[in-house]
Design brief:
Length: 231
């Protein structure tokens, strides 16, 4: 397996939970777009050979500016995003360079991925074909039925809150998406698509700072983290 990675970043969503009219990847943290900081997380040419960003055509100018500000040393390609995240990823997979043997899919609004986490995910993917990061669940989780009744309580030790980047061998994720599109199989993340295709996915320890900017309070948390890093 080639050990360089293509990073796919779906950035075509509207971010309605944040409120306001600007999509989340283009909100400002630390004086820069979230997407700009996310891109810099992957500015490691020894490991990353390509970045593909799925965008809404209406945001092309904002996306161009975010990429220019990031000033990464890696080729960046834009593709048009789809009506669903799954279709954005499928479009991005068609734009892969021949030079990459693995594919990482990463949320545009997780701007604090460490180099350590990226390298560990790549190493695990080389070993197993698919690797994702997860952090332990601290709350008790209940599975409920249609009337709101508790069906079961899974052991917390078996649960993880899953993050991105999620990294797969190129062949595995391309085949899994081909299957998913044909069968109209959807998943809440890319690992779920691979799982339904029959692939095995390995989980490694994620990082608490690798959070997803979803609500206004997450912007404040990001600003605080940036200030801490700059001290």
């Amino acid at each position: 397996m080639q050990t360089r990675v293509a990073v796919i970043i779906p950035a075509a969503g509207t971010g309605t939970r944040m409120g306001g009219g600007l999509p989340k990847p283009y909100l400002q943290i630390g004086g820069e777009a979230v997407l700009t900081r996310t891109l810099r997380c992957f500015n490691h040419p020894d490991y990353v050979g390509q970045i593909v960003i799925a965008i809404s055509p209406s945001c092309k100018e904002l996306a161009d500016e975010a990429v220019q500000r990031a000033a990464v040393d890696i080729p960046v390609t834009f593709v048009e995003g789809g009506s669903e995240r799954m279709y954005s990823i499928a479009n991005a997979l068609k734009a892969l360079s021949d030079s990459v043997g693995m594919v990482a899919v990463h949320d545009a609004v997780r701007p604090f991925v460490s180099r350590r986490l990226l390298v560990e995910l790549i190493e695990k993917c080389v070993q197993t074909g698919a690797s994702i990061p997860g952090v332990p669940v601290t709350d008790t989780i209940k599975i409920i039925g249609g009337q709101g009744e508790v069906v079961s309580t899974p052991q917390r030790s078996t649960l993880r809150s899953i993050q991105t980047p999620q990294i797969f061998s190129r062949t595995l994720i391309v085949d899994a998406y081909r299957y998913a599109l044909k069968k109209k199989v959807f998943g809440t993340d890319d690992a779920a698509i691979v799982e339904q295709f029959g692939g095995t996915v390995s989980v490694i320890d994620g990082e608490m700072n690798n959070f997803k900017i979803t609500y206004p309070s997450d912007i404040q948390r990001a600003e605080e983290l940036i200030s801490k890093f700059s001290e």
